[in-house]
């Protein structure tokens, strides 16, 4: 049988232990084929079919799945067939061992000898595919694993691996097809009937889809995978149907409910998104307080939930508009909301204001507010944990159509939050001139008494933020003359020239000589209190750089021992992360590959060596930016996210020097090393940690301009350059910061629109909610970041009046509140 029928033979190296990094075989043409043939003869393989293939230059198409190989035409005795299988297994074992040692050339030779024996047993075909995947040959791996799955379609391990490899090969449609065929096999459906079954089941009541729960666990796992795949390939009706099924099957699965709500909001189905969130709240409330009516408190707070979700909905929409590559999806979104967004196809960035206007159109066309009010939602007397009303939230993002609807429904225009801020204050804090000039909001703010005269408080906010467009609130220029607090730093210290930022992490000497500057407030951690952070920055949403913030006993141990380059490499060498060009690149359809910490540090070493020789890499630098678990299985009985110890878990493991591998390394980062910086003061500020993130990257790596809830960034070692845009000018982008600097930064600087800042080792940066920000690492950088809920987006349902301990009289120790989005 010709070799092209058995799978493409690939060699990408000229010696054991290395790859040329190219995308096609190095030995091509007659000369290369002859050389390969001579070597093949020396190792005892049949070389002529390979010579023919190389001379003809035949290659299988990307992602095409070949038919299973036919059985050999010659008849052999049974013992000979057994010997052939054993021989192939031996070659496979040696190929696997060579691949694990990065001896790619040797691995390919062994693979080819196995393929020469024309294996037909599914496990053997699968193992051939696995070795190809280890060698980075995802197309070939996909071919062989597809053959194995075709011969054993009910093998769940084959199916899940096929889906994973198809994604890595850049063939998400093939992954979808594999998952659908797998579900048809496991559910005993006729071929090509899955879509009809999916849509019919999604519209059925929950009791009529319980049969799915009676199937194997593999069915539900495949369905969960298929939801993500449908979103990835933009098959929105199928994704919506799959989300509906999971939402109905698992009403208490808050993660599944949240994913469905976020998906719905992203494509403009705001009404559906809020309904899903309300149903999830009701299910959780009934679980915690089974002897109390759940519907009424949920309905009462429906508009509060909508208000607390406005930021997240706008961000989801901006992200979806940025990701969509199918014009039909944009047309569908335009039709759903009566707002044309088809011009945004293939846009590299989305203005947040555009996403907000689209969201307003969706809310209006779907009559979301009117429907909730008809159901009994209250417009007054209800608020978030910090007494933010829906009107506060709408004013903060200048959602004027929402403001008008709420005011017409008798929302309290003078309501104040825990910081005595009215909706008008909320508009000023975000710089929303359009929303701030609403006459009713202006009148309410001017006549409302707070801790100080409210009009004076408005002027203070304008002065602090230096917002253009609010000058009409100031009597004269002297209104902005305020005494400076003692914690202010006017000039950042000059660092001596060096090739390290501390801990053995490296920086180019020429970069280290550049002065550190910052366009927003800089404070000295030694005299800066948690109350200062709450009152002067968090509550007023002002960006901040805290110098020397990592000065606690915990951070001293992390910086002095655990996270020096040498010790970090030793302890976390085998921990695996996704290596990408920008954070969460796979969500933008970009390549993401797994790497161990040790391999990535070797890459960083090579990158630094090239940079000091001024050798430019044509590829953008790779980056590790990973989400960490927020709750440890061993500490679930304690405060959420390690609340009782400031956000970290066991910090007493002094002897944790053994190599951390797999989940163990991730666990150490998340629950031993992670800690909320003392200056943030979670017990004073009452922030609620939503994410824990770890980052590691060389100079030149970074994150594009993006938006999310409030966050802090602790740079353990390194040097970062920040670019911030205030909420009215915020954008969501997938453009690498290098391109942003070249193409957009000059114009933004000329307008005075962008704030820049240098963060150095031991510093913490606070980025307020809805402030767009991009980051460029100017040195090797390693640290933590975290997003949190606070203020207008920190919403939870209060416990019933007659329940003091949150357990509804039971002894299960449930929490007191049911949290929303």
UniProtKB/TrEMBL annotation:
Which residue spans traverse the membrane? 33-52
- Domain JmjC positions: 665-805
Q: Where are the TPR repeats?
A: 122-155
Q: Where is the composition biased (Basic and acidic residues)?
A: 1-18
Q: Where are the ANK repeats?
A: 389-418
Annotated Acidic residues bias: 640-656, 801-821
One Pfam family, short name = Cupin_8
Note down the stretches annotated as region Disordered.
1-24, 61-83, 631-662, 796-821
Q: Which residues form a coiled coil?
A: none
SUPFAM superfamilies (UniProt xref): Ankyrin repeat, Clavaminate synthase-like, TPR-like
Q: Low complexity composition bias: which ranges? A: 65-77
InterPro entries per the record?
Ankyrin_rpt (IPR002110), Ankyrin_rpt-contain_sf (IPR036770), Cupin_8 (IPR041667), JmjC_dom (IPR003347), JMJD6_ArgDemeth/LysHydrox (IPR050910), TPR-like_helical_dom_sf (IPR011990), TPR_rpt (IPR019734)
SMART domains reported in the protein's UniProt record:
JmjC, TPR
Q: Could you tell me the keywords of this UniProt record?
A: ANK repeat, Membrane, TPR repeat, Transmembrane, Transmembrane helix
Q: What is this protein called?
A: JmjC domain-containing protein
Q: Identify the species of origin.
A: Salpingoeca rosetta (strain ATCC 50818 / BSB-021)
């Amino acid at each position: 049988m010709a070799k092209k029928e058995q799978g493409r033979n690939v060699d990408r190296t000229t010696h054991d232990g290395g790859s040329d990094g190219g995308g096609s075989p190095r030995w091509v043409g007659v000369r290369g084929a002859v050389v390969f043939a001579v070597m093949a003869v020396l190792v005892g393989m049949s070389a002529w079919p390979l010579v023919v293939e190389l001379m003809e230059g035949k290659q299988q198409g990307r992602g095409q799945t070949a038919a299973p190989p036919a059985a050999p035409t010659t008849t052999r005795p049974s013992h000979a067939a057994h010997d052939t299988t054993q021989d192939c297994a031996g070659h496979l074992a040696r190929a696997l061992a060579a691949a694990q040692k990065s001896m790619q050339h040797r691995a390919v030779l062994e693979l080819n000898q196995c393929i020469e024996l024309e294996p037909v047993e599914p496990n053997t075909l699968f193992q051939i595919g696995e070795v190809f995947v280890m060698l980075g040959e995802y197309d070939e791996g996909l071919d062989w694993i597809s053959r194995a799955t075709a011969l054993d379609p009910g093998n769940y391990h084959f199916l899940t691996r096929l889906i994973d490899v198809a994604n890595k090969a850049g063939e998400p449609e093939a992954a979808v097809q594999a998952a659908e065929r797998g579900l048809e096999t496991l559910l005993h459906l006729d071929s090509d009937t899955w879509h009809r079954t999916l849509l019919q089941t999604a519209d059925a009541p929950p009791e009529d889809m319980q049969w799915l729960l009676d199937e194997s666990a593999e069915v539900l796992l495949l369905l969960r995978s298929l939801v993500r795949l449908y979103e990835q390939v933009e098959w929105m009706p199928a994704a919506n149907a799959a989300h509906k099924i999971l939402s109905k099957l698992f009403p208490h699965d808050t993660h599944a409910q949240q994913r469905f709500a976020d998906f719905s909001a992203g494509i403009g189905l705001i009404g559906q998104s809020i309904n899903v969130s309300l149903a999830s709240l009701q299910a959780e409330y009934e679980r915690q307080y089974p002897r109390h009516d759940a519907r009424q408190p949920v309905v009462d707070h429906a508009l509060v939930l909508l208000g607390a979700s406005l930021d997240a909905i706008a961000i989801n929409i901006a992200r979806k508009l940025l990701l969509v590559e199918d014009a039909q999806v944009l047309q569908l979104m335009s039709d759903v909301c009566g707002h044309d967004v088809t011009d945004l196809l293939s846009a590299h960035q989305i203005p947040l204001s555009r996403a907000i206007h689209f969201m307003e159109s969706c809310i209006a066309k779907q009559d979301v507010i009117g429907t909730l009010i008809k159901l009994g939602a209250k417009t007054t007397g209800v608020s978030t944990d910090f007494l933010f009303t829906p009107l506060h939230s709408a004013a903060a993002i200048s959602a004027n159509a929402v403001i008008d609807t709420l005011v017409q429904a008798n929302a309290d225009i003078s309501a104040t939050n825990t910081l005595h801020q009215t909706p008008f204050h909320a508009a000023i804090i975000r710089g929303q001139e359009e929303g701030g000039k609403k006459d009713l909001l202006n009148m309410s703010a001017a006549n409302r008494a707070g801790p100080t005269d409210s009009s004076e408080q408005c002027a203070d906010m304008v002065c602090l933020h230096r917002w253009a467009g609010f000058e009409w609130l100031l009597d004269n220029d002297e209104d902005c003359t305020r005494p400076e607090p003692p914690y202010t730093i006017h000039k950042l210290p000059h660092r001596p020239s060096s090739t390290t930022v501390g801990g053995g992490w490296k920086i180019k000497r020429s970069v280290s000589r550049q002065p550190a500057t910052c366009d927003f407030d800089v404070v000295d951690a030694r005299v800066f209190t948690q109350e200062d952070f709450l009152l002067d920055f968090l509550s007023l949403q002002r960006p901040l750089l805290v110098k020397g913030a990592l000065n606690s006993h915990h951070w001293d141990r992390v910086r002095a021992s655990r996270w020096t380059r040498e010790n970090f490499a030793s302890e976390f060498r085998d921990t695996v992360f996704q290596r990408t060009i920008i954070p969460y690149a796979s969500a933008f359809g970009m390549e993401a590959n797994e790497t161990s910490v040790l391999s990535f540090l070797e890459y960083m070493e090579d990158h630094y060596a090239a940079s000091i020789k001024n050798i430019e890499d044509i590829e953008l630098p790779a980056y590790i930016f990973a989400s960490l678990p927020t709750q440890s299985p061993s500490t679930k009985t304690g405060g959420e996210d390690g609340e009782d110890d400031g956000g970290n878990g066991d910090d007493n493991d002094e002897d944790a020097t053994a190599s951390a591998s797999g989940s163990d390394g991730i666990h150490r980062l998340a629950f031993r090393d992670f800690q909320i910086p003392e200056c943030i003061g979670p017990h004073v500020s009452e922030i609620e940690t939503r994410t824990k993130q770890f980052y590691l990257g060389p100079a030149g790596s970074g994150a594009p301009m993006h938006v999310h809830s409030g966050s802090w960034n602790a740079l353990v070692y390194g040097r970062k350059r920040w670019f911030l845009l205030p909420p009215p000018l915020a954008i969501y982008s997938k453009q690498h910061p290098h391109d942003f600097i070249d193409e957009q930064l000059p114009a933004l600087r000329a307008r005075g629109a962008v704030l820049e800042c240098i963060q150095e080792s031991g510093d913490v940066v606070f980025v307020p909610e809805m402030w767009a920000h991009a980051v460029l690492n100017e040195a090797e950088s390693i640290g933590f970041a975290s997003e949190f809920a606070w203020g207008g987006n920190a919403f939870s349902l209060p416990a019933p009046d007659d329940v003091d301990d949150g357990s509804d009289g039971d002894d299960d120790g449930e929490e007191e509140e049911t949290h929303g989005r």
